[in-house]
Amino acid sequence: MERFSMVYVPLDRNEASKQVIPLASALAEAADATLCFIHAATHNEAATDLLEHLHVTRGQIRNAMFDQFPGRPEDVIPATVNQHPHSIIVMPMSAHPEGGIQELGPVSLAVIKKADCPVVFAPPGHDWNHWKPKRMLLPQDSTEECAAAVAPAVGFSSKSKSHLTLLHVPIYSAGILEPAHHALPLPRYLDQPQHAIRAWQEAFIERLCELGHVPEGVELDLVLGTGDPGEEILAWAKRIQADLIVLPWHRDLETADIFRAVIRGAECPIMSLPIANVIAPSVQAA
Amino acid sequence: MIDRLFQMVVFNCDFRGGGFVLPGGLANVFERLGKLGIFTVALDVLPGERFGAGIQGHLRRRVYYTQDSAAYGFGPLGEPLSLDCLDETSLVRRLSWEHGIDPSDIVVITVSGHEGSGVLEKSLPDCVHVRAASSEEALMNLQAVADRLEKGDLNPLPNSPHRDPAWIVLEEGFNPARELEIEALLTISNGYAGTRGSLFERGSPFGPGTLIAGIFDMIPGESPVPGLVAVPDWVRLRMEILPPSVEGALEDLSSHDLSSGIMIANRRTLDMSRAMMWREFRHQDPLGRETAIQGFRFASQFDRHLLVQSITLRPENYSAFIRIEAEAELFESKHRSYLNPYPSKYSVLHGPNPTPGSPALVSYTYPSGAQIVFASNCVLKLDNGQVIHPTVNRIENRVAEHWELEVEVGRSYRIEKLISVFTSRDGAKPARLAREFIRRAGNRKIETHLRSHLDEWKRRWSLANIEIEGDPESERALRFSCYNLLSAANPEDEKVSIGARALTGNSYLGHVFWDTEIFMVPFFIYSAPDIARSLLMYRYHTLSGARQNAQKNGYAGAMFAWESADSGLETTPSSILLLTGERLRILTGEQEHHITADVAYTAWQYSEITGDQAFLYGPGAEILIETARFWASRVTPDSAGIFHIEHAIGPDEYHEDISDNFYTNEMARWNLRQAAWLVSDFAQRYPEAWREMQARVGFEASEREKWLMIAEKLYQAQIRNEVREQFKGYFDLEDHLAREESQPGGTDFRIFLDLAKLGKTQLIKQPDVIMFLHLFRDQFSDNELRKNFEYYEARTLHGSSLSPAIYGLLAARSGFPEKAFRYFKMAAEVDLRNNMGNASGGVHSAAQGGLWQATIFGFAGLRASGTEIVFEPVLPKSWQALRFQLLWRGQPLLVSISAEAIEVVHKGGLPVPIRVRRCDAISVQPGQTHRWELAANQREEIA
């Protein structure tokens, strides 16, 4: 089960980057990881000067490391973090100047494209001082690729003692995804719902754990959304009062309609989990 | 001299002389032969002698004898049964077809000079006849045969699965996404215990994969209901190649064991002809050391308390020190199934044990007090015949029988594991029963157990097998259906029935629905009547619970539970939390009452087709009377004196709380009338027995008149253009037609989740009106059948695995042969291709029964009553011939159907009236083969 050992927080002079420090700190504490601030600069400065330059107090960076690297943030941040497996990056979302729509800024977009690790985006306008991961929501779409996100999510929820709820949003338009092709089954009908629902629920979770190589003994809740995936994710996050949405991330922003929809509407932090490389387990013993 | 294996031995010797002086005597020989799966018949036993008393009860099932011109056999518990046979010849003939034994596999030993010694040679010319100079010589000869059989000399056992693809289900490779349904498909079961086809080296993601019939416990939760319990995973086996440096340090089994490394050429095969699951694969560890592994497991059909697994390991390219561990999980402490109750405590009763060969016993106790005991006898056999007993240890949460030994390249090492299972249902001391059983079983070779098992299956298949020329896929699917139905049943236990997923998975919690009577029992009636009777007796034994259900709901008589477990009390959960977060109230337990008439209907059908008068004028009559009483109290009259059944649910469960469901009303009407007829007939035919029955059930004469009056005035459905309205107001609902993309297998099936919306439309889940048309085909014209079929088929979403087969059947009868075959394939693929996406929770037993019905009642067009059999065949184009056997009133018939002709071979002893299409019935005589030529248009025939 994957454990996170480093939580990186990119800092700049912008106030938004500092607002996520309590969030990152809570994540680091929950994951038993080291908190590390990172700053991309034109030239290295003495630590005291840098703190002053960034308007960061010593209290804000207590029990943390602080690194600065020369270069553009969109290059420096992913390059640095990619050298340290088992890391998480925490960044703020930005609000669009016109209309206040939540979105990712240019640096965030560059980081999420290049980083191999999860990136947590915090929506603006929230006070994260008392935030703790207690209820996580993990959407799934029936595919084996998506299932690969379960093990790291389970690892984090287990470490942080938070409750993980799986939200299954079946895909309908692309036709049936056959289990024979490494996809998960979809509820095709409800015969005697008093039994069919529980049976399907159990089968779904067990398959998911098999595909995602989740260790035994993990208890997961499963809920179902039948509408538009983006809307379902936001609605269920609100309904279960999720304080973290874990979004499996295909690393292709062009087609990431659901990802963008969730970013726009989320009222809690979103953790993107890159899931590009899934190894077919068919020839291996489990 | 007897020099080959026979299936049956008939002793035509001088039993009156009392001349048996061999050690152990006759009982000893009969018992030994019984253990070897051989039937024995003793002719002309001394009057007054308690024959069979010296033979173990369960082995007496294979013993028959005649005494004082009467024939006898023994029941499942060893009790004597009188057989209806005219003479010795007819007894042997009857046993031949009942057990599926070819006459050439029957040896008749006659002592020279014995009275009537030449008669059987003439009357049974196809049997093998042996003369012996004396009774002692005959017995010595058989002792010698038994010796050789016990050594495995005369009958080599299979060492690989059946080669015909139409007899196997083969799964290759390893795909975690499909593992759960593969486990269900490859289940081995004998109706007492069922074990899913999980991988022995890693177990199942679902947790323990074995279920025991009849052992329920409450599943905690908001709406607690009983479910079949989880029991130990007895198939687990670990093998580890140990590094030389750590010999003796055996705690860590995680490094190079079979669950890591690479699995090469992994094959699991369900051999349906033998009811065995075979496993074959090569394992390569990270150092490149390869081990070839082959084995099988089965649940004995002969000794239902016995489960067997044999696994042979062969190092292919190495010699090493290894550890092998056959284990029983005490319980999977980490994994908790959502569905199975786990034991509240367990105890290791006998192990670790220093005595080699002593069984390891583990007892599980469940919160309700139910107990299950597993006793294990496991040995390791080497190439040279050496047997090594294991060391038994408790390791973490498992009891392990283990060996550490040096293995050599190219040599084979076979682990044979016998498990006996007993529960608190079997007796007050299941541990003692399990221990005694496993000791006895351990004294016999695994080959002997396998032979007994195979013989039982051979007997079952001799009646149940179906052959289809030209379509091996369909043939395989039908065998899969028959295999699952036969392996689900236990005719030795009348207090259990077959749950919706039998013992192949935990979905539906082992609950028994109308699936059993309406979809499965017809197969048994024609192919295994003893099982059909046993299943109906389950309903009889649960009448008490059904009476309580009726009383609780303010009705009279007996109201069978929509979902029944061990007591017959209603066990349907009252509500469920949907995955969408909404709570759904479940009304089926409160309103789906047609099951009460379904049970009565099937009890009647059974007695009609089998001629089992003892059942009809006994348990059957009680069922019909109590169910009629229920309906008489269930109806409510309106001001015009018309009776209605309100607040009901029919087979189409998309429409709840409806009034006057066609299926329910018509089944109730039939139930009332049939019960009224039966009580009159009973009183007339068996007045004394009727008086006893009358007193037992407190029947009053006025009840009969009331039943007939209600049946007469029960609401009759509106008919529009010959189409029966499914329930009052159905025709006024929004009319939607079913689209293929909305059906299981389509691309958008969200409509299934919106039950409230479905209830406002004419879309239905499964056959409802059509179901009644199937059951009472003779009451409707061809035109009515066709019009109702067309109307409702267009509105059916097939939201149940029960649906496609019945539509296939009716399509064949309604003149839509292509559609019939499409539905047949859809039903055939419910499990084999998991086309409804939920086979992981177990095989759909009712769909399997439906597939058989679609074939026999649909394509072969079989309709039978108590007076004749009718065939109206309409074969799919790809089927060149369809061959099957059936039993009608005890008469075995072999039926062959092609596009050109029907041929019936009568293998029984009494004439059978048979009609083909609209021809006059022909009385086919015993031993006769009759052929009907069919006209090309399939509507006329030339006799």
Q: How would the blueprint of this fold be written?
A:
The complex is a heterodimer of chains A (286) and B (943).
Chain A: E1 6-10, H1 15-19, H2 21-31, E2 34-41, H3 47-54, E3 64-70, H4 73-82, E4 87-92, E5 94-95, E6 102-103, H5 106-114, E7 119-122, E8 135-140, H6 144-147, H7 150-160, E9 163-168, H8 193-211, E10 221-224, H9 229-239, E11 244-249, H10 257-265, E12 270-274
Parallel strand pairs in A: 1-2, 1-4, 2-3, 4-7, 8-9, 8-11, 9-10, 11-12
Antiparallel strand pairs in A: 5-6, 7-12
Helix pairs in contact in A: 4-5, 9-10
Chain B: E1 8-12, H1 25-35, E2 39-45, E3 63-67, E4 70-74, E5 80-83, H2 88-98, E6 106-111, H3 119-123, E7 128-132, H4 135-150, E8 168-172, H5 179-185, E9 188-189, E10 193-195, E11 210-212, E12 216-219, E13 225-228, E14 237-242, E15 262-271, E16 276-284, E17 290-299, E18 306-315, E19 320-329, E20 345-350, E21 360-365, E22 371-382, E23 387-388, E24 391-395, E25 398-407, E26 413-423, H6 430-442, H7 446-464, E27 466-469, H8 472-488, H9 514-527, H10 529-541, H11 543-552, E28 575-577, E29 583-585, H12 588-591, H13 594-610, H14 613-634, E30 636-637, E31 643-644, H15 662-685, H16 687-697, H17 701-713, E32 719-720, E33 723-724, H18 755-758, H19 769-775, H20 782-793, H21 803-813, H22 817-832, H23 845-859, E34 863-864, E35 869-871, E36 881-888, E37 891-898, E38 901-906, E39 912-916, E40 922-924, E41 929-934, E42 941-942
Parallel strand pairs in B: 1-2, 1-6, 2-3, 6-7, 35-39
Antiparallel strand pairs in B: 3-4, 4-5, 8-15, 9-10, 10-11, 12-13, 14-19, 15-16, 16-17, 17-18, 18-26, 19-25, 20-21, 21-22, 22-23, 22-26, 24-25, 27-36, 28-29, 30-31, 32-33, 34-35, 36-37, 37-38, 38-41, 39-40, 41-42
Helix pairs in contact in B: 1-4, 8-22, 8-23, 9-10, 9-13, 9-23, 10-13, 10-14, 13-14, 13-15, 14-15, 14-16, 14-17, 15-16, 15-17, 19-21, 20-21, 21-22, 21-23, 22-23
